[in-house]
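Data card: per-record layout.
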Amino acid sequence: MSDSTINLGRILVVDSDPAYRLQCFEIFSAYGYEVELAESVAEGLDCFYDRRPLAIFCELDLADTKGVELLKTIRQSDKTTPFVVLAQEANMAGALSALRYGAQDFITKPLPDPSILLHTLQGLLINDEQQQQDELEIAISELRYNRDELRRDQAMASLFQASLLPQQQFDIGRFRISWRMPLKPTPNRYFLDVFALSERHTSFYIADFGDDPVEAAFASGALKVVFNEALREFNHQSANMLQHPEQVMSWARYYLNSLNLKETPSLVYGLLDAKNGRMKWASAAFDKGPYVWFDAATQALADPGPSLHNSIAQPPVYNCNEFAVDEQRPLVFSHLPEQQLLAIAQQPTSVKLPVPVSDMLAQPLANKVAGDVFSLVVGRHS
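The structure for this 382-residue chain is written out next.
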């Protein structure tokens, strides 16, 4: 495959016959797919978890065990990745049994026609893509339908928004992402989420939806849905958008404008590389950080960036910023203006920073008791 050929995604082939694996490799790679090869269930599982293929072709009668064991293990955590069983004609009963465990199709061995591999794959991917798109549209439609109900009962809207929030502390390698957003009787204008992309990378986003609490609850749910869809594509279709914060801004701009919100939200998206200790981030009119907490002082790193507002003018260009993260210089996103954040940072503290810093920053100031507050801190935990 030439360098100019488009990579259509990654396929995993698990088969004990080297000649058959090579045949599958040549067929798929000739049409632009990246192919991972394995000869056992153990190798197949390693490839699946490390490489996240968009489809799996697995021999039913592997040398070490039955291919259906690979299928059963994968289906414990993944119900959707297309799985095709490769079976000898004499073992059709086994192939049909695999369908009951969650395989989508089977192909007889040897291949009567090499094109069958491609036709099977393309049919499954079309069905999978359509199913995911249908699920996305259904989820957004349900949120739209419940919009009025959220408006009538703001306490319920607040609980709904709170149910979407991630765990308050997320560790990856030597790093910790901690956040605080106290529960209120009405929805918070801010919303955030944190999710792992791999053993090395973790992403997060923070949105500011403005002064309408009902719109904030509705938009929080919608944003969660579309980011979950982007994460699914990242895991199963080798899509790498989530590794490029500036691309995420343009993508989010499209989806958020389709919601017809009363106010154009602000958004920041970050990507933490735990191996190298660096964070990339991009922002759309978001002026709540990041700041660097350092020796009882702060350094503003904020790059608010262009708005997400949809206009007929040329689409805005979002910048990708990058910064090193270590235990002495955690990155802080906070509702507090830079001047107030600096005032807190200059208060007497112990030699070590407050642990976690997010606990301190989530406490509203005296004149902000009833206001919307949040904090998110990225730093090392050991």
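Known properties of this structure: The chain has a mean pLDDT of 80. DSSP finds eleven helices and 16 strands in the chain.

See the next section for split statistics.
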